[in-house]
Amino acid sequence: MKRILVTGGAGFIGSHVCARLVNEGHHVICLDNFLTGCKGNIAHLMDGPRFELVEHDIVHPYPIGPVDEIYHLACPASPVHYQRDPIKTMKISVLGTLNVLGMAKKHDAKILLASTSEIYGDPLVHPQPESYWGNVNPIGIRSCYDEGKRCAETLFMDYHRQEKVRVKIVRIFNTYGPGMLSHDGRVISNFILQALEDKDITIHGDGSQTRSFQYIDDLVEALVKTMNTGDDFLGPVNIGNPTEFTIKELAELVVEYTGSRSKLIYLPLPEDDPKQRRPDISLAREKLNWEPTINLKKGLSRMIAHFKEKEYTHELK
Ligand code: NAD
Ligand code: UDP
Q1: Cis peptide upstream of residue 123 (ω within 30 degrees of 0)
Q2: Residue 136 sits in the same domain as residue 235
Q3: Which residue has its alpha carbon closest to ligand 1 atom 41?
Q4: What pLDDT does 308 receive?
Q5: How far is the CA of 187 from the centre of ligand 2 (A)?
Q6: From the CA of 245, which ligand is nearest?
Q7: Which one of the ligands is nearest to 214 CA?
Q8: Integer distance in angstroms from the first to the last C-alpha of the chain?
Q9: Based on the structure, what is the number of domains in the chain?
Q10: The model scores a pTM over 0.90
Q11: How confident is the model at residue 182 (pLDDT cuts 50, 70, 90)?
């Protein structure tokens, strides 16, 4: 049994990671300040003897006890949330990451960073391999997140080179599934909720921009596999589903699978919204022997069923 810290453990991805690690028999410490996560996501774990909750903001140091591994996920991830207080977002990515790397150094823990496809910005290379350095606007409204995560990757590599910390960097592409808040604001949860209520489906721009959507279970499997690689594998490694859809195609699929009467409406495209995104996952296939198993049809059906059965009452702070 390992002692494993999951920062951001009450969030969408973090709560699935915590559940997986508890089920594997580990002792899990979930550190979260509920900025964009909620207690409902971890309620089913709270009574278990191997789960601990620490309510703390990682921007400030925390005297964690010994841990063997750290999954560092704490950071708002949806554009509407990370843009609400961009200075705070940058502090979380930079100061928060420094604090968590300090914990890893102190306890000689292996540490994994939840980085993002956003570090490629509005990519000029398609699909995106890890070797691509990206096309990020450093002064735009998405920069707090994109540049924050680029800095977090830099800190990870420098702690590895200078302090010999055992690091892993995972670049996560758009992921969806149960556990996303109704107010999350990302495209799949927005469209499903709109469709279930027969409200207008809000497409940004003309809907020709693309994304490649990965179901949460595939991501969790890849995160655990990456953590379990040898110390010589640092990444960065792309983790995502390489099947690409336009946002308009996504809207049409959601309407079809929900049997909704919703109409598609077109709103202005937000500034710096990437035009295309698809991961090259050759490295993950080779090093992790991993590839996604859940296609969009199956994943959307599961998420629609989940949103139908669960009443979403979680409000953000
Ligand atoms: P989320 O917003 O659901 O979860 C983030 C969690 O971190 C929340 O529980 C939040 O309360 C917590 N948190 C935020 N700031 C904190 C702070 N200062 N101190 C302590 N806890 C804090 O988002 P998610 O989709 O689960 O994303 C998790 C991680 O994965 C993020 O780092 C994100 O950048 C990364 N990621 C996610 C996606 C995706 O598609 N979901 C894609 C790329 C990268
Ligand atoms: N989007 C949209 N309608 C919405 C929310 C998002 O058309 O209600 C678009 C958004 O502009 C982007 C794509 O869907 O082009 C994915 O957005 P999301 O916020 O989910 O993730 P990201 O842009 O970070 O990939």
Answers
A1: no
A2: yes
A3: 175
A4: 87
A5: 5
A6: 2
A7: 1
A8: 34
A9: 2
A10: yes
A11: confident
Query: Ligand 1 in contact with 218 (CB < 6 A)?
Result: no
Q: Which amino acid is at 233?
A: F
Q: Can you say whether residue 71 is alpha, beta or left, with left for phi > 0 and alpha for psi between -120 and 50 degrees?
A: beta
Whether 268 and 144 share a structural domain: no
Q: Which numbered atom of ligand 2 lies nearest the CA of 190? A: 8
List, by residue number, the catalytic residues.
Answer: 145
- CA of 261 relative to ligand 1 center, distance in Å: 33
Please answer whether residues 283 and 130 qualify as being in contact, where contact means their C-beta atoms are separated by less than 8 angstroms.
yes
Query: Residue written as tokens 């990370």?
Result: 82
CB 314 within 8 A of CB 38: yes
Same domain as 101, residue 141? yes
Nearest atom of ligand 2 to the alpha carbon of 207: 7
In a domain, 284, yes or no: no
Note whether 77 and 207 are same-domain residues.
no
The string of pLDDT tens digits covering residues 185-228 is 999 999 999 999 999 999 999 999 999 999 999 999 999 999 99
| Lining residues, ligand 2, CB within 6 Å | 78-79, 174, 186-187, 190, 202-204, 209, 211, 247, 270, 273
Identify the bridge partners of residue 201 per DSSP, sorted by sequence position. 264
Residues 135 and 191 in one domain: no
CA of 50 to the centre of ligand 1 (A): 22
| Same domain, residue pair 194 and 135 | no
